[in-house]
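stuck on whats below:

***
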Amino acid sequence: MITSEKDTYKTIDVAKGDALFKDKGSKFIGYAFPVTSEEEVKECIDGLKKKHHAARHWCYAWQLGIEEVRYRANDDGEPNNSAGNPIYGQILSKDLTNVLVVVVRYFGGVKLGVGGLINAYKTSAKLILEEVVIVEKTIDVFFKVDFEYQHMNKVMRIVKEQNLQIVDQKMELACEFLISTRKKNASKVYQLFLDLRCLTIKEITP
């Protein structure tokens, strides 16, 4: 079983929007969304395109995953690396995952140049990420424990002593618990249950 010192991650729980930055007539409006899939990313961007249908660009960056992280940065028609990467840099600076940051641009008639664009998109992303509430969550491991009802007290003793969460349960003559624990405690918890020798336990993905 794999263990790791790091078993927490930072993300946001609530979407935030309308952080405004202006430069030479152009308006840049920043938004941040909690997301867990690329489907959610698409829904958020589609929603902004409807809301800001007169805008010129909808540039964004996202990062998804907890232990296997993936990301994307999109310039949406702006010069290469002038929008998506500066936005993504702000996500990295806050050490966030499962987050999407979009900056909507209304063109003001004056070109800003690559340097100006980098500054505008970076600043817009920074402004919105300063407004969000960042939360720290634990990386949890889930176990399915099967045992006979007569061993309930032994199982519950470990659950209470280790402060485990019972996510789901079936209690009949044959019982089944779905239990979660912080990743850093997973090996210890697994061994404690194994040592009872009156049950079966396996790690699962709920």
The chain has a mean pLDDT of 95. DSSP finds five helices and eleven strands in the chain. The longest strand covers residues 26-34.
